[in-house]
Amino acid sequence: MLVKSEGIIISTIRFSETGIIAKIFTHSHGILSFYVKGVYGRNAALKPSYFFPMTLVALDFYYYPNKNLLKIKELRPLIFTLSLDWNTTKSPLLVIVAELINRCVKEVEKNEPLFDFLRNFINLINTEKPDKNPNLLVFFMVHLSQYLGFFPQNNFSDQKCIFDLKSGNFVENELDSAFCLSPSESKWLSVILRSDIINSDKYILPGEIRKNLINHLIIYYQIHIEGFKGLRSLEIYRKVFDSQ
């Protein structure tokens, strides 16, 4: 069956001398894998740059429910993340976001709310300059959890001012300091929970707090997603953003 859909490039691996296997989050069917021939050939119709992480594409593909590797008939970038306003801060942000999605989203069925969330984030990245807004990743990680089923409960108050990573809400006392945020980190998390990503540039989030929140959010994901082992691209991301 020929399907026309939008998609978001999540990851690729080389397969044969000129081909790749591309994992694409499609609007129509969720996460699907495609074998794409000749991407690294001399006269390739589909360029390697089309498959950069978090590129929004329009694609026509042949869908078969019981087939692991599908075939793309046509593909074209809709938002070309590798060329639009390209800079050295956008690249590590897109790569770490794509890795996060790759590790968290396994479903092979339509998930329109999550797809729309990711598409809106890509649109934001192409209008924002990440070096001017280093809050984007921490806001993204917090709000992505809403679509994964473990969005924190924002019950922050003067009494319940400590966020517990295990329970996913704010508590009065530190149940286990290894799995609790500090009062200042908890307060900032509460701010992020009631704010939209599009407004993330309006907050002056201290660099050390932002760094600690990202570290704690990785632990939060590990607690709530079986098999989540962290993010390999975090080190490169930190080299770019930790000084901001």
Write the layout of secondary structure elements.
Elements: E1 2-15, E2 19-26, E3 30-36, E4 56-62, E5 69-79, H1 90-104, H2 112-125, H3 136-148, E6 162-164, E7 169-171, H4 183-193, H5 207-224, H6 234-241
Structural class, by secondary structure, is alpha+beta
Question: What's the alpha carbon Rg, rounded to whole Å?
Answer: 19 Å
- Which fold name is given in CATH as the topology of the largest domain? de novo design (two linked rop proteins)
Spatial order of the strands forming the largest sheet: 1-2-3-5-4
How many separate domains make up the residues? 2
Q: What is the H level of CATH, i.e. the homologous superfamily of the largest domain? A: Recombination protein O, C-terminal domain
3D shape: elongated
Using the 3D structure, state the CATH architecture of the largest domain: Up-down Bundle
- Low-pLDDT ranges: none
Helix count equals 6
Distance between the termini: 49 Å
Mean pLDDT: 91
CATH C-level category of the largest domain: Mainly Alpha
Helix content: 25-40%
Largest sheet: 5 strands, mixed, barrel
* Order of H and E elements: EEEEEHHHEEHHH
